[in-house]
């Protein structure tokens, strides 16, 4: 069920770089022991149409990991560090990299079509 939403400045990466970032994040999170069903991972990126950072460098990428409630603080912190390490490796030129972890609301609902055979 984990969702990873990566908000980024337009200059953070080109489409191929963003695709490679999603692949690397998927692999890193799927290997984490707390992600018991990697097939439920959902990753996406969204370019900021306008942004302003209070620092000199203006490129940024911010990942939000949204999880079903129940993971302890150590696990949440470890997952955030996994994501940050992937961001650092895939986006070494980006000035500001950050990660937040949030719980999905208990009212979260979804529908998934069965796979085509």
Shape: globular
Order of helices and strands: EHEEHE
Work out the strand percent: 15-25%
Strand segment tally: 4
Report low-confidence residues grouped into runs of 5 or more: none
By DSSP (H or I, 4+ residues per run), the number of helices equals 2
Q: Can you give the helix content as a percent range? A: 25-40%
Oligomer: single chain
Distance between the termini: 23 Å
Q: What does the average pLDDT come to? A: 93
Coarse structural class:
alpha/beta
Q: Compute the gyration radius: what is it? A: 15 Å
How would you characterize this protein structure?
There is one protein chain. The protein has a four-stranded mixed β-sheet with strand order 2-1-3-4, covered by helices on one side. Helix 2 links the parallel strand 3 (60-67) and strand 4. It is an alpha/beta fold and 117 residues long. The chain contains two helices and four strands. The protein is globular and about 45 Å long. The chain has helices spanning 15-30, 73-90; strands at 3-8, 42-47, 60-67, 96-103.
